[in-house]
Structure formats: C-alpha cells, structure tokens
Design goal:
Blueprint (H helix, E strand, L loop, with lengths): L17 E6 L2 H9 L8 E5 L9 E5 L1 H4 L9 H7 L16 E4 L2 H18 L2 E6 L2 E5 L9 H16 L3 E6 L2 H10 L5 E3 L5 H5 L12 H9 L5 H5 L3 H8 L1 H10 L15 E12 L2 H21 L2 E12 L3 E13 L2 H12 L7 E9 L2 E2 L7 H5 L41 E4 L4
Parallel strand pairs: 2-4, 7-8
Antiparallel strand pairs: 1-6, 1-7, 2-3, 5-6, 9-12, 10-11, 10-12, 10-13, 11-14
The protein binds thymidine-5'-triphosphate (TTP) and magnesium ion (MG).
Keywords: Cytoplasm, DNA damage, DNA repair, DNA replication, DNA-binding, DNA-directed DNA polymerase, Magnesium, Metal-binding, Mutator protein, Nucleotidyltransferase, Transferase
GO molecular function, one term: DNA binding
Subunit structure: Monomer.
Length: 429
C-alpha cells in the first residue's frame, strides 16, 4: 500500500470527490467487536480508568450511553452517576446501567490498521488525521452520479470485514466532506454535491464547520454570526481582523471552499500537480502544453521546499476513469526543471492521439537538499490534534486523550530504486 497518491493540489478548474470516513464511537465499537454481548448497550471507555474504580475520564461512550448524558472528556465519576456500573448495580436498580472498559490503545490501533488497509485500497490519496478518521480522494475513480453507491459499499465493507460502524461524508473538498460525515452520525452517509454545498451548509450552527471550535463560535455569536450562512455572508475583512488568517479560512469553509489537497500527513514523499480539461481532448499539442504547465508547477513546489527528486512521472486519465501512470527513475536525486520537462514529454509520447480527460505530473523519491531532513518515520509519527487543531485552525475541543498519531500507521511503500532511464508502470494507489 502506498500513502503517496497522485492527487495533487486542485487547480481552480478542477472539482474533486472527497470522502471523510469517521468511525462511530470508535473505542467503544472496538470493545464491542471483541465482546459482542456489548452490542446495543451503553458502553463507556475510560482513559485512566481501572475496573471497579471511579477515576479516569471518558474517552468515548457508545450512542446508547450518550443518550444518558455521558460524553467524551467527562470524569468517570460523573458518568457513573448517570449510568451505574452494570456489574455492581444494586438488584433493585431499575434504571439504565453502563458497561465500563479501560482504554486499550494497542487493540484500537490494530483495528485502525485494518480499516486503513481498506481505505488505501479504494482511494488515490488518503489523509489519516487520527486513529479513526481519514479523508479519501476518489476523484479519478468515481463520479458524482455513483459516489453514493461507492461510499455505501465502503461502509458495508468496513462493517462486514472489520466489524465496526463508520459514518461517511462526501463533498467536493475536505471541509465539506467532514461536515457531511458529522451530519448524520452514527451510521451516516451524506453526499453533498457541488451545487448543493451552500444550501447544505447555510442553516448549520457555526461550530459544525471545520475549524470553528467553541471559543470561536462564542466570539462569532457575539458578532451576530450564528450559522454557516451568516458566516458566509459576513464581511471577510472583519473576520480577518478579528481572527487573523484563520478568519479567512473559516469564511471559505462557510462558503464551501477548501483548496487543500488530500495529502498524506507529514513530510511528502512525492509532489504532484493535476489538471482536468473542461472537455476531453485528443489534441496532443494541448496535452503537451498542459503537461508542461503542470511540470512547471511541480518544479516550483520542489524548489520552494528545497526538494530533490529521483523519479519523474505522469498520469493520464482517459474518460471516464481509466487512469494510466508512467514514471522514470534517474540514477540519483536531481533538481532540474529542463529534465522534468523532457522526461514528461517523453513519457507522454505513447498517448499521442488518445482522448484525455485529465493529466498529472509527479516527482517522487524525494530528498531534501539541506540534508537535515528527519527520517520519514519521525515526521509521520507526529500527532495531529483534533478537529481544528489539525490545521492550526482553532483551539480544538477538549480531549481526555487525543486520538494519537504514534500508532505506527505510517509505513508507506518506498519504491525500489530503479535503473536509470527505465520506464516503469506503476500503480500509485
Ligand atoms: P471521535 O471520532 O471524536 O469520537 P468517537 O469515534 O468516539 O465518536 P463519533 O461517533 O462521534 O465519531 O474520536 C475517536 C476516538 O478518539 C474516540 O473513540 C476516543 C478517542 N477520544 C479520546 O480519547 N478523547 C476525546 O476527548 C475524544 C473526543 C476522543
Ligand atoms: Mg469517530
């Protein structure tokens, strides 16, 4: 499996199909997986909790437990007031009871790894943002007309093969997909097509937007901004002067805009740019011209990051979803714009006369010029915080323990070194 897909930053003419997959009450679902008698019952998973003890905090609670007011980050002692322990509840207790279990990260990571394997198999690019949450770019695999069936069968697969439920949101970018997956939890599937985005977002309370936490929401309300619709029509300059750059970002999110590509977390192992034609074309000069523009963009990105590359590749998508990738590896890392252009044109030759819908250019096998780059694993072990913290967007939510990134889910293929000048046919997914 490779985490380094070919999904490049979207260009303005490009629409993407992005899924956000978020497992429902994940730790509790894992506990139910190995203890099926807990299904349908209130389950509380405690961080720093030990059987029979009142200490610790709620990491998560099943939806049945949430109905009784139990929620993440609450002290276990408080949860016990709402839901006495099933094992020790007095015989005459006729109210609801809870099943308490201590956190078992090693087990949850195992389950997460199994889910991850499925996700990487169905998407061109995957961004794992926590132990139970990931974004998938499936633009080259499925169109809007069939994405609901696609997402529904992904949910079913995770449920049947792994035994835990997921909610899935689909949108034209990460921020919309994230809001969509939260919209109908648990076991939700919400598809928001590009034309529906503004209408879908408008009535939602601002805190449901990606990047708006409780503190920002309070401040926004103070400014008379309560819904995403209010935020979308608020004065951008006023937002920026109040919240800094983040003001502009949440304004964009309220308007359903989010230019971030779905990229794996951490230091990139490849850099790519992609662009779709408005209408598929078989004009080879137009194809070459577009490839050269993409090559320029990619080279610019490598220069701004001081990156050297050893492998240069192209992607050619024929309508509707026939993805072809070709790449060539050099004997050593280079930073050479002319070479990128000539290799790209060379690789394109076999597609002369073909009808093309979309193109991509990618450089991979990256090293960083300063020679001080930390090993990939170090970078990839870095944690991302919760919603908002992920992008430094917001203060984030209170967490008794963040879903962590030290879960070893970061191995990626390292393409074997290839002989100079040899063109290889690779599957980037
Ligand atoms: P979430 O996806 O935020 O929560 P969840 O999966 O339990 O529930 P939902 O159905 O609303 O998605 O977080 C994933 C896991 O991270 C969660 O199962 C437990 C852990 N976690 C904590 O340890 N502390 C916290 O405060 C939160 C919010 C989550
Ligand atoms: Mg979850």
């Amino acid at each position: 499996m490779s985490g380094a897909g070919f999904a490049g930053p979207p260009t303005s003419d490009e629409e993407r199909v992005v899924l956000h997959v978020d497992m429902d009450c994940f730790y509790a679902a894992c506990e139910r997986r190995r203890e099926p008698t807990l299904r349908g019952k209130p389950v509380v998973v405690g961080m720093g909790y030990e059987a029979g003890e009142p200490h610790g905090a709620v990491a998560t609670a099943s939806y049945e437990a949430r109905e009784h007011g139990v929620e993440s980050a609450q002290p276990i002692s408080q949860a016990l007031e709402a839901l006495p322990r099933a094992e020790t509840a007095p015989d005459d207790h006729d109210g609801p009871v809870g099943h308490y279990r201590p956190v078992d990260m090693a087990y949850y990571r195992e389950v997460s790894d199994e889910i991850r394997a499925i996700l990487h198999g169905v998407a061109d690019a995957v961004r794992e943002v926590s132990i139970d949450e990931a974004y998938l770019d499936v633009t080259d695999r499925v169109g809007w007309h069939s994405v609901e069936v696609f997402a529904s069968s992904l949910k079913e697969r995770i449920d049947e093969e792994i035994g835990v439920p997921a909610s899935v949101g689909v949108g034209p970018n990460m921020s919309v997909a994230k809001v969509a997956s939260d919209y109908d939890k648990p076991d939700g599937l919400v598809v928001v097509e590009p034309a529906e985005v503004r209408e879908f977002l408008a009535p939602l309370p601002v805190e449901e937007l990606h990047g708006v936490g409780p503190v920002t929401a309070r401040e926004l309300r103070g400014m008379g901004v309560g819904t995403a619709g209010d935020l979308a029509s608020a004065d951008r300059d006023a937002l920026v002067s109040r919240f800094g750059a983040r003001g502009g970002t949440i304004h964009d999110h309220a308007r359903g805009r989010d230019p971030r590509p779905v990229e794996p977390v951490g230091k990139p192992k490849s850099l790519s740019s992609e662009s779709a034609f408005t209408e598929p074309t078989d004009a080879f000069d137009a194809v070459c011209e577009r490839l050269l523009r993409l090559a320029d963009e990619v080279v610019e990105r490598t220069e701004s990051r001081d990156a050297l590359y050893k492998t240069i590749g192209i992607k050619v998508v024929r309508p509707p979803f026939d993805v072809n990738t070709r790449e060539r590896s050099l004997s050593g890392p280079v930073a050479d714009a002319d070479l990128v252009e000539s290799v790209v044109l060379d690789l394109a030759e076999e597609f002369e006369g073909e009808t093309v819908r979309k193109l991509g250019v990618r450089v991979s096998n990256l090293t960083f010029a300063e020679g001080t780059q930390a090993p990939l694993d170090e970078w990839e072990g870095e944690r991302e915080g919760g919603v908002g913290a992920e992008d430094g967007l917001d203060e984030g939510e209170a967490r008794s323990e963040g879903p962590d990134r030290d879960d070893g889910r970061s191995e990626h293929d390292r393409p074997a070194d290839r002989a100079r000048g040899q063109t290889t046919f690779v599957d980037f997914t």
